[in-house]
């Protein structure tokens, strides 16, 4: 388990994130070796916590994430990043959110139902797969799938809107 304890100011924050990246890279290289070889996933549970630890430096967090993205091609792994859109809806945070959407191959957005609460459906997922496109097109040309979901005790059910779940 990797834990980022934060830095002091300026260059110290960037140095701390560089050390975190080095630790992630070492774990990835270790996981690639021997009988563990194959595809695996690096998960960042909440980008906003990285930004808090970096004293609000979105630029340093983006640099760290760009380094992590390089692992996807160099080390044959996937990178999954959780970001809370509501935190970044202000003018200050919209740049980070837009940048993460730009570099993502797949964007999954979970949201409450637009019609309000329901007993048999807890929310909706929108999935945009930018990686399927042969050429980069405007957002309206991207394939979007919509699903409903119901959270259960040990997981969730996903189904098309209007279908039997």
UniProtKB/TrEMBL annotation:
<comment type="pathway">
    <text>tRNA modification; 5-methoxycarbonylmethyl-2-thiouridine-tRNA biosynthesis.</text>
</comment>
<protein>
    <recommendedName>
        <fullName>Elongator complex protein 6</fullName>
    </recommendedName>
</protein>
<dbReference type="Pfam" id="PF09807">
    <property type="entry name" value="ELP6"/>
</dbReference>
<dbReference type="GO" id="GO:0033588">
    <property type="term" value="C:elongator holoenzyme complex"/>
</dbReference>
<dbReference type="InterPro" id="IPR018627">
    <property type="entry name" value="ELP6"/>
</dbReference>
<dbReference type="InterPro" id="IPR027417">
    <property type="entry name" value="P-loop_NTPase"/>
</dbReference>
<comment type="similarity">
    <text>Belongs to the ELP6 family.</text>
</comment>
<dbReference type="GO" id="GO:0002098">
    <property type="term" value="P:tRNA wobble uridine modification"/>
</dbReference>
């Amino acid at each position: 388990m990797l834990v980022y304890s934060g830095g002091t100011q300026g260059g110290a924050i960037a140095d701390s994130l560089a050390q975190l990246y080095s630790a992630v890279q070492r774990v990835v290289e270790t996981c690639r070796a021997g009988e563990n070889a194959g595809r695996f996933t690096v998960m960042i549970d909440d980008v906003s916590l990285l930004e808090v630890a970096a004293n609000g430096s979105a630029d340093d967090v983006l640099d760290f994430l760009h380094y992590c993205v390089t692992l996807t091609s160099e080390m044959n792994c996937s990178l999954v990043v959780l970001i809370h859109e509501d935190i970044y809806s202000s003018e200050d945070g919209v740049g980070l959110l837009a940048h993460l959407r730009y570099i993502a191959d797949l964007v999954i957005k979970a949201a409450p139902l637009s019609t309000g609460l329901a007993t048999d459906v807890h929310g909706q997922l929108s999935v945009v797969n930018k990686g399927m496109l042969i050429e980069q097109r405007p957002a309206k040309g991207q394939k979007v799938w919509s699903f409903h979901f119901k959270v259960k005790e040990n997981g969730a059910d996903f189904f098309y809107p209007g279908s039997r779940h």
